[in-house]
């Protein structure tokens, strides 16, 4: 049976980290909120689960995955669950906790990216918090990108199995998520990331290697890949960008 | 061998969610950063791991757990790892993903609590972002507490095994974390939480039931429990609090 992915239609957002794993593995999945109402899909089908008063395990927010009766919410949790089924987790069980720790650190950075354009309230318009956003984005560029990406660079360098992968000696969903993170940072902050490849050569090389994977290359060129836009997590607001 | 917990000395912070699980289970553990330098402990011992250039799996930040050679970072990951060993995870493996999803939603709320007093930058003093903090805290009280805690209330009400636990029919680490979340919200926002028990009766009842557990009651009364203070996640700044 196909996996059912539930995420907001029209943006990559957090759902994209799950899509990349499903696409790389060539898994059979339905992107439910992007489907047609006449097929029982669409945003309404997603909201029905979130607002259900009888569902035993309701999710707080998209993305969530439905696999038969089980609903698995939260990106890192979905990937922890799917990874072994898709061949995208380390085989060594202990390394799965290393992978999960890295994925949660990626999630922390993604939350901070969101807050560069919404530092005061998710429900307020960007235009109504632009000054605060400028302060937060400057701190993100000056301090947080170096801290997070510098850390991921060290993780690659210190990986005892070689610096081609974030954990272990083969591809995992963590590598795919690093690709997406780097893509997004380049999109949102082209000035701040101008010297990225020089500063973080292992991270950039991992990004490039993921993009060379046939299923990822095909996906990125397909209509299934929604372009980055200003509804997502990674938004390009030139006034928030600056040289690093 | 004793578990080694690494977290900043002098505050509850994110480490407290792990401490509560270890304490409830009566596990043998060392709170390393709070130990003495002469015993190879203290903050220096923690920083040595974080800054190591040879450690195969470095953590991004505290808290992290060391179990033999394995280093497990990130609260939800630590609890996912420890839960089965401490008897604080659901026995049904599928429910473990439900528990992890809930724990990650608690982690998201904890990050938002932090940002009520540090909306612009973690590295800036609170005093230098107080106006932004007031805006963010108001949104947190008006919108985010109802959204998150209202969700947890629904989770309890809709649990097919009964509303005494967040998942399944017995105590898990998620219940312990809900206790800590409620404690923290009451500490930080006494005005905003004045009618909490009435609005969220199941969540409040779960908090009270956890506090009745002998090991938790003994821990909370012990010197091992650091009092809430303004270095932690939950800070009581009266100017950020208001009636809900």
What does this structure look like?
The structure is a homodimer of 244-residue chains. Chain A has 244 residues and is an alpha+beta fold. Chain A folds into two domains: 84 residues, Glutaredoxin; 148 residues, Up-down Bundle (Glutathione S-transferase Yfyf (Class Pi), Chain A, domain 2), CATH 1.20.1050. The first copy, chain A, is 50% helix and 6% strand. The first copy, chain A, contains nine helices and four strands, in the order βαβαββααααααα. A four-stranded mixed β-sheet of chain A has the order 2-1-3-4, covered by helices on one side. In chain A, α4 runs parallel beside α6. The first copy, chain A, is globular. The mean pLDDT of chain A is 97. Chains A and B meet through β4, α3, α4 and α5 of A and β4, α3, α4 and α5 of B. Chains A, B: It holds the Pfam family GST_C_3.
Task: Please outline the helices and strands.
Two copies of one chain form a homodimer.
Chain A: E1 3-6, H1 15-24, E2 29-31, H2 43-50, E3 64-67, E4 70-73, H3 75-86, H4 93-117, H5 130-158, H6 173-188, H7 196-199, H8 201-211, H9 214-220
Helix pairs in contact in A: 1-3, 1-6, 3-4, 4-5, 4-6, 6-8
């Amino acid at each position: 049976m196909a996996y059912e992915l539930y995420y907001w239609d029209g943006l990559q957002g957090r759902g994209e980290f799950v899509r990349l794993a499903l696409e790389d593995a060539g898994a059979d999945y339905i992107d439910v909120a992007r489907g047609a109402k006449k097929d029982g899909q669409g945003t309404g089908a997603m909201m029905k689960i979130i607002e259900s008063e009888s569902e035993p395990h309701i999710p707080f927010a998209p993305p969530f995955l439905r696999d038969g009766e089980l609903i698995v919410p939260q990106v890192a949790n979905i990937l922890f669950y799917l990874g072994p089924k898709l061949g995208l987790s380390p085989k060594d069980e202990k390394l799965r906790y290393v992978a999960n720790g890295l994925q949660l650190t990626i999630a922390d950075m993604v939350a901070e990216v969101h807050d560069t354009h919404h530092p005061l309230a998710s429900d307020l318009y960007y235009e109504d918090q632009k000054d605060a956003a400028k302060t937060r984005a400057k701190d993100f560029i000056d301090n947080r990108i170096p801290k997070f990406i510098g850390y991921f660079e060290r993780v690659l360098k210190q990986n005892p199995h070689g610096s081609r992968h974030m954990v272990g000696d083969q591809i995992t969903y963590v590598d795919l998520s690093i690709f997406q993170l780097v893509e997004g940072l380049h999109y949102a902050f082209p000035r701040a990331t101008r010297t990225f490849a020089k500063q973080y050569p292992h991270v950039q090389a991992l990004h490039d290697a993921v993009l060379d994977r046939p299923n990822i290359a095909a996906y990125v060129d397909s209509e299934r890949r929604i372009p980055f836009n200003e509804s997502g997590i990674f938004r390009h607001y030139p006034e928030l960008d600056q040289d690093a």
